[in-house]
Amino acid sequence: MKPHLTGALLMTAAVFSAADSGLSAQSAAPADAPATIRCTFQPYSKPEILTDHLNLGGKNPSGGEIGINSLYLTRDGKPWIPVMGELHFSRVPRDQWPAELAKLKAGGVNVVSTYLFWIHHEEVEGELTFSGNLSIRDFVLEAQKQGLEVVVRPGPWAHGECRNGGFPDWLLKKPFRLRANNDGYLAEVRRWFGAIGKELQGLFYADGGPIIGLQLENELTGNAAHLDTLRTIAIESGMNPPLFTVTGWNAAEGARIPSTGILPVFGCYCDAPWNNGTRPLPPSPHFFFNRMRNDTAIGADLMPTNRAGRDGWRLPYERYPFATCEIGGGLESTHHRRYIIQPFDVYAPALIKVGSGCNLPGYYMYHGGTNPVGKLSTFQESKASGYPNDVPMLSYDFQAPVSEYGEIRPSYRLLNLMHLFLEDFGDRLAPMPAFDSTIPVKRDDTTTIRAGLRTDGKSGFVFINHYQRRSKLADLENVVFDTGSVVFPAIDVVGDIAFFLPFNMDLGGELLEYATAQPVCRMGDTFFFAAIPGVMTEYKFADGTREAGPIFQHGKIRIYTLPWKDALGLRRLGGELYSSRDCDLIRVEGDAPTVRPVQTGAYDARKWNGEKFTVFRIGTRTVRPVLRGTRMNQAPFEIPEIFAAELKLSGASQILPLTWWKLEAYGDPNGFVEFHEVYDVAQIYADGKLVADQYYCGFPWRIPASLLIGKECYLVMSPRDERIYKEY
How far, in Å, CA of 259 to CA of 236, rounded? Predict the structure, then answer.
């Protein structure tokens, strides 16, 4: 049988079950209309805000200042909600850094976080390198050029599905305990941190550079003294950003961290690829509002946050703003657990965390990547290296908002809706604490409204989620949200959707009592909203005026309501607003900054001129690349054992029957080709070098044509494994 091979361009427009615009007029309710569902919230109580208690924050030479209190971060004295996205510089080719960082910026991310995997830089003891694709200095400088600030994550232990958690093999053979305060290990840490500090000299916030944060270690849950020592060593090595962070998750009582000088950060995932089972897991608690920061092993079990450990320890959450570093931007499939990530698997938990009080959304991963291969070993986590999971040797795609090869996924567009809002209105949201709905929701509940409230007692935002991964939620009609100060008109909450609605929102001096549309951004005196699929759009102002039109003037301001699909295409690039339904636009900074589409081809786009959107054409028509495959009767070469091990994962002791294809690609090298065959593990070799691998997850494998064109290429795959958890 011949494989289904195509060079079709990826078109990832999100599909919604309700009307596109949501702008139709409200019709009269029939006599048999369903009963009203009234959603109220816990009463407002003003939070006690602690200040100057964490020994964090700092100034730069320009007079800028980053601060922190127990509820939110501040920037130049104003409340601030940064958006952080993870991209690993050593997993992305250096020549692609400008464009890939520009995609983060265009998606509303303003801080890039990145691991330094020790084994990538010093696989052989004494051969420490920061050159080429491993130049952390050049990466930070490029991030700054693209308008991003940086959080560096130097470990020393990092995890990140890297071999040994990022520790070099030679370090594991040393005669001392790792990740602990002993002279032998700390001497190696000082050498590692010292080398990084030298590379990053002059790039920290205090020097006028873009590095605003540094994460110490990762998932070290019970050694506050060691974390404190690592902070001291980092500072001694010249690394002293305004913010030091550590992962705060552990058991219910939270990780044991130093009492000052550290900000704990948290995470959530829509499933658990590290789970050792092959059965579906119970519904994730991260799809309803609960103000939970911490759970065991990231995304496994819902835990109370007020339970103390055996010795009375409990992480004092009330001392810290709710910050995250690992809101799952997707999942990395393990060999025994394969996933198909849907757009709302990413967006709904992110919106819920913000609606539950998170004032620093951080995504892991936001951009996928490709593992390098070492001189002595491959660099992925595997059972062979002592870990409970096998992950692909090369692919670290994560089904993230930006793929391993730089393609845009629907989750990117959804997240950008919220990021645009946080950029323009985050200073209003940050001081608002979160309050739960008075209607409890259980993990397996599919019929109860899921909502959360953030308010200052007068104004605020109602957050609504109507999505649960791998479950169908019942459509809810005639839902009324009562914030205690404003009662919204009844709306229907239907289909897969997550959104938020404002009340008593100051719009340039005009007080909006409520809107049944989602605020997105502001350009001058024009405020942009997104119409919610399935929800009738209505604006009511404090003067009693009601409006429902897509564009209208009210006093000194103008409201522009975009259909949901148009709002998904909004991008703020270089301070200007663009939109396109057909492509994703980015602006790559450099000597001649250019706005261009991510996808190859020519597209219609729109640019806001202060009064309206004007249409223009962008990109260049190209011929899609073509991939041809020929089934081979025998292997063209013997696979090196270091790579062959991956193809044996689905077998026991017997030799697996491998299938080989000779591949030939033609056409535009900037496009993508697809392989549609079913397999367990597949690898592609180009001119004798392993260039790509994949675990089959139920959808076509998309491959950059540039990896194949002009090269002698072969694809090898192992037979399908039925003993795994899969979603296809």
Answer: 20
Q: What structural domains and CATH numbers belong to the chain?
A: 37-44+434-620 (no CATH), 58-427 (3.20.20.80), 623-717 (no CATH)
pLDDT in tens, 392-414: 999 999 999 999 999 999 999 99
Query: Which residue's structure tokens are 């930006």?
Result: 402
Amino acid present at 284 = S
CB atoms within 10 A of CB 19: 15
The pair phi, psi for residue 46, each rounded to 5°, is -70, 130
Angle between helix 224-236 and helix 183-199 axes, rounded to 10 deg: 40
SS3 letters for 123-156? CCCCCCCCCHHHCHHHHHHHHHHCCCEEEEECCC
**Whole-number Å distance between alpha carbons of 495 and 533:** 8
DSSP annotation of 180 reads: S
Task: Extract the tokens encoding 135.
Answer: 């130049």
Q: Can you say how many angstroms the Cα of residue 323 is from the centroid of all Cα atoms in its chain?
A: 14
pLDDT tens-digit readout, 339-377: 999 999 999 999 999 999 999 999 999 999 999 999 999
Interaxial angle between packed helices 410-429 and 343-355, expressed in degrees from 0 to 180 and rounded to the nearest 10: 10
pTM attached to this predicted model: 0.94
Pairing assessment for the beta strands 263-268 and 576-579 based on DSSP bridges: unpaired
For residue 224, which of 196, 187, 254, 194 has the smallest C-alpha distance? 254
